[in-house]
Amino acid sequence: MATELILSLIDFEEKDLEQMRLVAGERKLLTRKDFDGEIPPEIWEQAVVILGNPTPAQLKECTSLKLLQLQSAGADNYCKPGVLPENVALCNATGSYGVAIAEYMVGVTLMMAKNLHLYRDQQFAGVWRDLGPVMPIQGSKVLVLGLGDIGTEYALRMYTLGADIIGVTRTRKEGPPFVQKMAVTSELDELLPEADIVALSLPGGDGTKGILNENRLGLMKEGALLLNVGRGTAIDTEALTRALAAGHLRGAALDVTDPEPLPAGHPLWHEPRAVITPHISGGFHMRDVYEKLVVRCIRNLAAFNQGRPLESMVDRSTGYTVSH
Questions:
Q1: How far, in Å, CA of 172 to CA of 181, rounded?
Q2: Residue 41: is the preceding peptide bond cis (ω within 30°)?
Q3: How far apart are CA 186 and CA 196, in angstroms?
Q4: Does the global pTM surpass 0.85?
Q5: Among 227, 236, 284, 293, which one is most buried in terms of CB atoms within 10 A?
Q6: Do residues 20 and 127 both lie within one domain?
Q7: Cβ within 8 Å of residue 178, ≥6 positions away
Q8: Sheet architecture: strand order including 225-228
Q9: Are residues 134 and 48 in the same domain?
Q10: Residue 171, in any domain of the structure
Q11: pLDDT 10s digits, 19-48
Q12: What is the count of structural domains for the chain?
């Protein structure tokens, strides 16, 4: 009988790999560094656990797989029919990225509210000119679509800056104490005209695709700010391009786009009201993210080895986490 393997596609530090080996039981833990080139087919075949985000083609070789622990919070690419057998447990890294991405969101919110991105453009052009009024954060209404780890951390930070927070979730639920009002997705049309800032931290999938279509972008308050750190497919890109060009919105900060990456010739690249970053608000850019992911992997490896419930399992019908 072939040896059961745990395969890490994440570049963990050796001290952390040692901790994972301690909880892995009799299973051998291998990493990409154990191979000179490509990981051979027999390794994929023997892997019962994979840590990281393999490609769909690689997953087709994983005939023994029982647990896929992603390094991303988003799991939509693995929820599509045929990508992952139903008997394979799918867990994401929710809880690892909230602080890092929320700080990015606060940063771009302040940048656009205070015209700092436009002043930066002027600097490169050698222009000294007052660009006029700015948007206050204190007293503003912030509509947060998706109150998971990321949305909640952003809502907390904006609350401390004096904003009034409205949280939007799929189903009606009680929110944290710093959220003044909780609503559901079906109420978006009534909420959008009230919001000064609309922030999206939604997973991908049919339930969120095009949630901000041309009609809803038109419903947004004149001069509002839009942020998206979830999936680019949540916003109609061409409709957003038109809304920005027409001056309907004050600005849009996009760490994700549709398509992604955004094609080189797309007009959004040259839209002064747009701030575009290449899906970098998360990742390992902050040490905090790495350390939280290490803990998640160790805890789920231990749970898997001992037959206990896994953390952060994903409901493949929605892309949302069903346990923590």
A1: 11
A2: no
A3: 19
A4: yes
A5: 227
A6: no
A7: 155, 156, 159, 160, 165
A8: 181-184, 164-169, 141-145, 197-200, 225-228, 251-254, 274-276
A9: no
A10: yes
A11: 999 999 899 999 999 998 899 999 999 999
A12: 2
